[in-house]
Amino acid sequence: GADAFAYDLGLGDERTLQNIVSKYSALGRFDTGIFGTYILLNVLFKNGYGELAFKLLTNKSEVSFHTMREHGATTLWEEWEGSNSHSHPMFGGSVEHLFGYILGIKNTEGTVGFKDVTIEPADIPSLSYVKGSMLTESGRITVEIRRKDGKADIKVTADEGIIVRRKD
Questions:
Q1: Which DSSP category does 57 fall into?
Q2: N or C: less crowded end of the chain, CB within 10 Å?
Q3: Pick from 47, 55, 54: which is nearest to 16 by CA?
Q4: What gap in Å lies between CA 146 and CA 17, rounded to an integer?
């Protein structure tokens, strides 16, 4: 996670990014805390490693969101192993990536309030189907993605008044 912080701040180069990718490809799970998890996902998604970020988010090791769910969690835990609070926003920053990268809902550059959005989901070949919506002050935006044979079929619906741009 420390390398992800450095890279995100511009203190690393392509070698730093490749070290991050190599480490987490081999590890297959998070070893990060509250800030490192968010920053690591940012670095991976922003640099075209959506598949790896998705692998980390959906891993089924003891250090995972899956383990929280398997133990009946309906909220996020303070620690991966569940030894402290079971209702804590510790890893809640990761939710932003579900909307901004997996569904690809982003404010169009230079805009705010989701009145003008660009839909640009990350390339995640192992994710064959996803659907989600985001309720903003400008209205609801829904994205549905089906992947088959290497191609993504993306359907977007948005409430009246929201400008939707696509980057496929």
A1: H
A2: C
A3: 47
A4: 29
Q: Do residues 101 and 53 touch, judged by C-beta distance below 8 A?
A: yes
Specify the pLDDT at position 167: 84
Q: Which residues of the chain have pLDDT under 70?
A: 168
Other C-beta atoms closer than 10 Å to the C-beta of 161 total: 8
> What does the angle CA 42 – CA 46 – CA 52 come to, to the nearest 5 degrees?
75
pTM for the predicted model, two decimal places: 0.92
CA 36 – CA 91 distance, rounded (Å) = 10
* Residue appearing with tokens 């070290």: 19
Cβ-in-10-Å burial (0-12, 13-18, 19+) of 15 comes to exposed
User: What is the token pair recorded at 44?
Assistant: 């991976």
Contact 134, 103 (CB under 8 A): yes
pLDDT at residue number 88: 85
Distance CA 51, CA 104 (A): 14
Question: What confidence score (pLDDT) does residue 89 get?
Answer: 83
